[in-house]
Amino acid sequence: MPKEHIRKRGKRKTKASDEPPLQPTTHVSEPEPSVSTGIHPARAAMLAGQSIPVQAHSSPQDAQLEDSEREGKDENQWIRGPRVESEFPFGVLDPDVKAYFKSIEEQIKDWEGVSSAGEEREDRQNFLSSVLSELRGHELSAATDPETSIILERLMPSLSDWGRRVIGDSFGDKWEELIRHRFGSHVVQTWMTLAADTLDRESKGIWPPQQAKQDPMAGRLPTMTSLFSSIISILLPAIHRLISSPYASPPLRLLLLILTPRRILPALGTERSENEGLIRSKKSDKWRKNQDVKGKSILGDDQSTAQSSNRALPEDLRLYRKEIRQALMEGLGEAEWKAMGVDAVGSPTVQLILEFEVDEGDAEKQGSLFDILTEGIVTQICSNDQSVFEARPYLLSLIMTQTGTRLSECILSLAPQKVFDAIWSTYFEGKLGKLAGHPYANFVVAKGVSRLQLGKIEKLIEEVLGNSGGRGLIKAARTSVVQALVDRSLVLTDSQRAVFDLIKSCLELPHDKHAFLVPCLMVLKTFPMYQSILTGEKATSPEPAEGNMEDDDVQAEASFAAAARLSAWQNRRSAKPKDDLAPNMQGCLILQAMVGMEQVNEILLESLLSLPIDSIIAYAKSPIASHLLDKVFLERSVPPKYKKKMMMMFMKSYKELVEDRLGSRVMDTIWEQADGYMKEKIARSLIPFVTELGGSQYGKFFIRRADIVLLNRRPDEWREKVLSVRHHFAHQKEASTPFVGLRDDITKRKKEKHEKDEIDELFDSVDTRKKRRIQN
């Protein structure tokens, strides 16, 4: 090989070193940090509420000159200035104070709702005083901090009326900024809920001890009534803008509820309560549940009146609710009200305003919110216009959309009777067959059914039967209209037979197959589908969709199906294999309501009794179906003979019932409703299993309650104790008791005479000999 072809060792040169770097052909405007604060100029302008500056394009030569000029500047210019952001409108909380609050959070969690007395209570009061002293001066920054705001919420229930007033006074005139804030709005909600108790006591003339010790020269702490007056005066000018804010709207809705006397307020803890959906969203409830917010005092002396319907309101605040409503009506136009009605944030507010209009008697006036949302129906009624009402697109959109159904239900439930009749005849009659099976409109129809009279209920049933006999309601599991009809028939008893015929038609149940009523409705399957599942045959194909279905219905069905798929995807990890014949909640609720239908409940009860005992025991062990059995035993309209038959069916299975977690609850219901004879019969059937049930997790409680051991040993005492029944010979035994005691005394004396020792007998014999000698 030639020498020049031999590869020499050495480091290879990279291609990058050979090729010169490419220069950009066009200038790229890159973001530049601010020289003074270290924040980009666009962000600094946005935080300051100014317009965003537009950077002028410069040539590469100018950029090089600017870079050379910056090199000579101070090296410390990269340090950021003071942090002022919208997330911290009152400044960043002091790190030491923040660390202190985080350190005491676990202690507050341990003491929440736990009672205290003596020295322990005094220790907790001292702890509370030290925490409040650390909080002083940092109330606003602590309320808007993402970590300390929840700690402040935990602390507030422990404050007295005086402490709540101090906190409210420390917020000053910053209420608008607070309720706009993501975390501050929740602190305001908690404070307002607790302040309602203070307002109730102030209206009754109950004041804290510090009220009489105030020094007028040093200043007086505002009362809670004056604090609320100042809050309303601060928020009133901007309330029409705040009401649609996602953070400010819930505190304002709570304020409206507080200004309504005798109105129950939402609970502070994780438990659900009335009006909860009007204030907090599901997302907020879930977050508070994860944080384990109990809303209890660390002193353990909660005496809240917020959950009471007797909550009072000071006279000075009674007119503010109407003033707020008038300010909203003046500040918002018709288009804005309609937009709020279909908005997830604004819809609860609209529902509250509608309720207040009805309370104050303004619902039937022209220009009212009812008139705006019904698009002139109230005006047409007030003007005595006899023309036919025309359907308008807005109310139709409310009925057909997911966010609008809540407002539609509110309108139907609160509307005056004339307005309701006009809405029902215009928007519902003639379309009920399709609306009853609509994924969203069926809930609106169900709400309207609760106000219908007998004639309109019969028309509704005819329309539903005209739409494929109503079997689509069962196949699609949209039973809210059927449930509402059953509930309404309990009031209008003359409609019970027609409602029952509708249910049979929906189930496709033949007239001679009434025995399958309970099993078909319990699993929410039509009779042919139920039979096909039992036999293992292929189910009949579902009914094809109507060719003339409107686009709105197609879109609604598509969105509903998409939501169902999303929910299934989210719950895929916890999904369990589906049982086609498992009890269904909707079907069980209908059955429970049908038990109270006096005219037709015997058919249902006969169907239930015709089931094999294994099926009924399976119902008793089900968390869903067990409620049907409870309803059968507790409902007054059920004839007593059916209750006794049901009890006798369980006679050989009470042991299995008692040992189950849910079956034992059904057993308790049976025991409460059984008479004395049946109780003894049930108890005697369990005597052979006393030992086994004594070791059962659930059976041992019933053994103690029924006192089976006493029945086995002393039946008479068991009857007196458990049944409060005395034996018919008991009075004779009591009467003969003294004579028995007298005989015992006589016998005892005779025994004492005969029972003598040997010495006594010896001396007795000596005495008798002496007597004989003397006589001789």
From TrEMBL:
<feature type="compositionally biased region" description="Polar residues">
    <location>
        <begin position="52"/>
        <end position="62"/>
    </location>
</feature>
<protein>
    <recommendedName>
        <fullName>Nucleolar protein 9</fullName>
    </recommendedName>
</protein>
<dbReference type="InterPro" id="IPR011989">
    <property type="entry name" value="ARM-like"/>
</dbReference>
<dbReference type="GO" id="GO:0003723">
    <property type="term" value="F:RNA binding"/>
</dbReference>
<dbReference type="InterPro" id="IPR001313">
    <property type="entry name" value="Pumilio_RNA-bd_rpt"/>
</dbReference>
<dbReference type="InterPro" id="IPR040000">
    <property type="entry name" value="NOP9"/>
</dbReference>
<feature type="compositionally biased region" description="Basic and acidic residues">
    <location>
        <begin position="275"/>
        <end position="295"/>
    </location>
</feature>
<feature type="compositionally biased region" description="Basic residues">
    <location>
        <begin position="1"/>
        <end position="14"/>
    </location>
</feature>
<feature type="region of interest" description="Disordered">
    <location>
        <begin position="1"/>
        <end position="81"/>
    </location>
</feature>
<dbReference type="GO" id="GO:0000472">
    <property type="term" value="P:endonucleolytic cleavage to generate mature 5'-end of SSU-rRNA from (SSU-rRNA, 5.8S rRNA, LSU-rRNA)"/>
</dbReference>
<feature type="region of interest" description="Disordered">
    <location>
        <begin position="275"/>
        <end position="311"/>
    </location>
</feature>
<keyword id="KW-0677">Repeat</keyword>
<dbReference type="GO" id="GO:0030688">
    <property type="term" value="C:preribosome, small subunit precursor"/>
</dbReference>
<dbReference type="Pfam" id="PF22493">
    <property type="entry name" value="PUF_NOP9"/>
</dbReference>
<dbReference type="GO" id="GO:0000056">
    <property type="term" value="P:ribosomal small subunit export from nucleus"/>
</dbReference>
<dbReference type="InterPro" id="IPR016024">
    <property type="entry name" value="ARM-type_fold"/>
</dbReference>
<dbReference type="GO" id="GO:0030686">
    <property type="term" value="C:90S preribosome"/>
</dbReference>
<feature type="compositionally biased region" description="Polar residues">
    <location>
        <begin position="302"/>
        <end position="311"/>
    </location>
</feature>
<feature type="compositionally biased region" description="Basic and acidic residues">
    <location>
        <begin position="70"/>
        <end position="81"/>
    </location>
</feature>
<dbReference type="GO" id="GO:0000480">
    <property type="term" value="P:endonucleolytic cleavage in 5'-ETS of tricistronic rRNA transcript (SSU-rRNA, 5.8S rRNA, LSU-rRNA)"/>
</dbReference>
<dbReference type="GO" id="GO:0005730">
    <property type="term" value="C:nucleolus"/>
</dbReference>
<dbReference type="GO" id="GO:0000447">
    <property type="term" value="P:endonucleolytic cleavage in ITS1 to separate SSU-rRNA from 5.8S rRNA and LSU-rRNA from tricistronic rRNA transcript (SSU-rRNA, 5.8S rRNA, LSU-rRNA)"/>
</dbReference>
